[in-house]
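Need residues for this backbone.
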């Protein structure tokens, strides 16, 4: 094998970068998040405002003239862990030689940027596509979360990268009768749980930014989002998430919580059997332990059932998150369907 890794600095190399998934998955089986159109949007600052606070470099590995792998190295100026950089967009043929060359290239770029640890896979940062699937390959692949061939785990671990953290996905059944844990009362007055107003997305994005940045700062891998990031998130969900599945809680008109469930396919009220992924759920610190989280999940249950969504997944819960014992186990259950692993390497 005659390997050469090139940085993407022209259209020809970018085309090779975009073509790698077809080599790995085949033309018909490329995951939506790895599709050329998705990647083009990811690296377009007009469509991904996160690039305003992210610096990145894309690389392609060639065996002669044949592209055989790709990787992205990135740093985020908003990252509170200032020594941390990311690797992502990783796609590779089943070759430890190619994988090692790609990961070392990403590590070298991050060293030049004075970073001391490399974390990934995380495409651009930990707010986007995160984790390497290591368990649950037979499970449903839901929107907006990664998928990869089983051999990727060996490729990554053979280069010396070690576990940083695991993200877990749980089986979610939505029975006609609410679970007993959701029928409990709450200790709050002045509570309103409302659907997002997509028509006023600028104002709603400001609320989402505030909620996200105040709810999740102690979560593993947290990076704050900007107003632009939140706007892009909202606009990216308009065509796939009904407003009733994107819930905002207010207590005496103050933003208090957020809940986002993403249908696997466009739901229809007159049909049952649909699937859904619970992507985000959280409550402001001052409103915790008062029943608001259960109240929001109860409303989510009701709206999902109305849309014929009866089963699904609670996705990518950090293994260190205490919500597992307080919310997921008693209400959702304990059946883990997938595990995604994030790896690290000291630089």
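Answer:
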């Amino acid at each position: 094998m005659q390997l050469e890794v090139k940085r993407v600095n022209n259209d020809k190399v970018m085309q090779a970068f975009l073509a790698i998934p077809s080599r790995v998955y085949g033309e018909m089986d490329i995951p939506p998040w790895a599709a050329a159109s998705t990647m083009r949007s990811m690296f377009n600052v007009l469509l991904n405002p996160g690039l305003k606070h992210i610096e990145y470099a894309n690389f392609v590995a060639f065996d002669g003239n044949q592209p055989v792998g790709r990787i992205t190295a990135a740093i985020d100026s908003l990252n509170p862990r200032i020594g941390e950089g990311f690797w992502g967009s990783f796609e590779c043929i089943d070759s430890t030689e190619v994988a090692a060359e790609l990961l070392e290239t990403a590590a070298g770029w991050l060293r030049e940027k004075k970073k001391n640890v490399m974390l990934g896979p995380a495409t651009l940062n930990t707010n986007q596509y995160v984790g390497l699937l290591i368990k649950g390959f037979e499970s449903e692949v839901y929107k907006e979360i990664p998928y990869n061939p089983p051999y990727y785990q060996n490729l990554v671990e053979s280069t010396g990268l070690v576990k940083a953290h695991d993200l877990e996905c749980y089986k979610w059944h939505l029975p006609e009768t609410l679970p007993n844990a959701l029928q409990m009362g709450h200790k709050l007055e002045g509570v309103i749980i409302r659907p997002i107003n997509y028509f006023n997305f600028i104002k709603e994005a400001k609320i989402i930014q505030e909620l996200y940045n105040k709810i999740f700062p102690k979560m593993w891998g947290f990076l704050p989002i900007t107003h632009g990031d939140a706007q892009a998130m909202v606009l990216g969900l308009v065509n796939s998430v009904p407003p009733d599945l994107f819930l905002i809680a207010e207590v005496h008109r103050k933003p208090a919580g957020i809940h986002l469930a993403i249908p696997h396919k466009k739901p229809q009220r007159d049909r049952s059997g649909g699937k859904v992924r619970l992507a985000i759920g959280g409550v402001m610190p001052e409103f915790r332990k008062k029943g608001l989280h259960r109240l929001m999940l109860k409303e989510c249950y009701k709206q999902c059932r109305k849309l014929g969504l009866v089963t699904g997944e609670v996705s990518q819960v950090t293994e260190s998150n205490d919500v597992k014992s307080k919310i997921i186990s008693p209400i959702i259950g304990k059946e883990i369907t997938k595990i995604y692993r994030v790896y690290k390497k000291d630089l």
